[in-house]
Amino acid sequence: MQTQEKAADNKVDRNKVYFLIIVIIALLGINGYLYFKDRQQTSRFVTINTEKDRLKLEVEKIEVELDRVNLLNVTLNDRLIEEQKLAREKIAELKLALKKGELTQQELDEAHKQINSLKDFVKSYNNQIAILEQENSYLKTERDSLKTSINDYNEQTENLRRENRNLNRKVKVGSSLKASNINVSAFRVKDNGKSALVTKASATNKLTIDFGIAPNDLAEKTYHKIFLRVIDPAGNLIADESNMFEADGQQMQYSRAIEISYNNDGTSFKIDWINPRTFIKGNYGIFLYADGFLMGKSEIELR
């Protein structure tokens, strides 16, 4: 009886051992499975992170390429501007997506697809910019050539205008009247209206300028205005401030003006000038102008 009980106890102990062995083997299998799965998960996590970093770098390269284009001296048309705007919006979306803590493989594949699409866009975009640069270079060359031609034309035109002005001036000078045989006399006009020739300043109240006009076939046979300017011994012009005329390209005051009829026939002319002031001793300068130029000058000394 004891032998049977002992045999039964040994059998129970063996079953326990077998059970423990089975449990240990099962635990070892589970641990091995979990270890292998963890290795797979770690490897996948590392792979995904590496792929994210690579995609981020690709996006940054694309953005740098677009920035480089903007630095070029190229005027973009509306279509290229709109295309670049859409590309930058897509880049912003990709950046935001790649900032996520974890991405599924599907999300990574989609990001990869979009980046490839952006690469193709940038390549096409750069080709279009290159064409624009070439066109702009050609247009710049044409513009510079045209600008040079215009400058040459303007310079030639200005030279012609200058020559024309000089020619016109020469013609005017050549056709203007020139005085000859200018003679200045001093007179005292008496109360009865008669004039007496004098030489003293104290006795003088009128100057008479007699002059002829040199023959000139270029001068117009018409009425010409003669302007007289009288300069006193102190160098002052004796003239009314309202008496103005133009000569030698500037405005001048005159002492008196007369109008003559010129026929190129040797006729002599005379200007009487009464001094509104008192004559003083010294030399008086007499200047005659016609047609905008000095036609002659003389002087008279009063004692």
TrEMBL record:
The chain crosses the membrane at residues 17-36. This is Cell division protein ZapB. Residues 52-170 form a coiled coil. The keyword Membrane applies. Keywords: Coiled coil, Membrane, Transmembrane, Transmembrane helix. It comes from Pedobacter xixiisoli.
